[in-house]
Amino acid sequence: MVILLVNLTLPHRVRLIGVAVLLVPQLYLPGLPVSLAVLWTLLTCAIGLMERGRSRADSPLVVISGLILAAAAVSFLWALPSGIRPGVVTIFFELVFVLWLREVIVLARDDPGLLDTILLWAIPGVALQSVLTIVFRVSPTIENEFLHSQLAWLTVGPAAQHLFTDAANNVLDPGRSGGFFVNTNVASLFGAVAALLLFIAARRTMHRWLYLFAGLSLAGSVFTGSKSFLVIGASLAVVILVLPRMLKGSAALVALPIALLLPLAFSSLIGFLERVFPTFYAKAQGSYGIRDDLWTRAAQMFQESPVLGLGFGGWTEKVGRVGSTFVLPPHNTFVATWANSGIIALALVVVFMVAAIVFGFRVATAQPTLRDRRTAVFALCAIGWTFLHGMADNTGVYGDEQSMILVAVAFGYLYAMSRDRKQVSLGFTSDET
User: Fold this and answer.
1) Is 426 part of any domain?
2) pLDDT tens sequence across 38-48
3) How far apart are CA 27 and CA 78, in angstroms?
């Protein structure tokens, strides 16, 4: 109640800054069902939705994400009793994402500069997360003490409380580190998306010191020990370097050869890793082997119930223990969506991803200078990183409950750049990089 009263009394601009300030670390207070950050974001979006005199989002992406939410809600009709609680959690965070996505798109139309302000206020938390990840990787003993402490219960939440009992996670590996996250892959995703957005903010505001924090965030992601970070990061680095120079023509003409070349590029990257980093390759193969067992079993279950899926709770009871003594999640956005909510929800997720990528290409292609095209590609890569990460890890189409705040801001940047080409050029008339 106190939180609600405080939120109601503040100007909306301050509420939005509060979303960024509370993003990292999350605060889990006694009596609250979710973190303070999630509750604050939900209240902020609800108030923003009711305020008059603001632009409408008018975004197909908001509509599609709303349909995904609706499809997930309908799937409660065939959910298992054991899946009700996790289903409620899943749908709740999807609701927060839809509302926050709408909010940042409205900001992009009414006050695009506020997107930069929000990101600037998130820097202290992002920097702290990065530093902790590096320190914990260097000294696993310090990380272990932190994870056993009351401070972890406050800043990491229930995941820390169950980490050493019934919900172990890969942060317990001495060769991994997560900072405020118990899953190092999710930590790497958060750091990577934050870094890409900081690159955008640096280019938009001309504050060069932001590049230092972007580099720190990338370093933190490297120190997580996540294999997916290295593979996705190497691939998208090439995209950032090459794609802006190719986007002088039609986006469709560019997208086709890129789509055709991606399998070849991925195959070449795998071969390079096998030759140059055999230990890394062996670990990656081991991780993929477990996922392959899960996906094979999921394919078998798909033949039995292709339309409705397994329902919330069905994965845990019918698939999740394959090749493991404890329940493993699907580690794939498509598989998880189908398993929980069926084929219609899966189709909507695919449509959302395709629409997002096509929109990003169109915005980048429309930019008047090479510099602006590259800025748009940074935003596109932040979104693409999230999608790619979800293909082999336990995150949704929007990432997780923390990274989704940043992913929505990436969409906001694209909408800001599509709003007015004259404004999008950010004052540059030359073809700078």
Assistant:
1) no
2) 999 999 999 99
3) 34
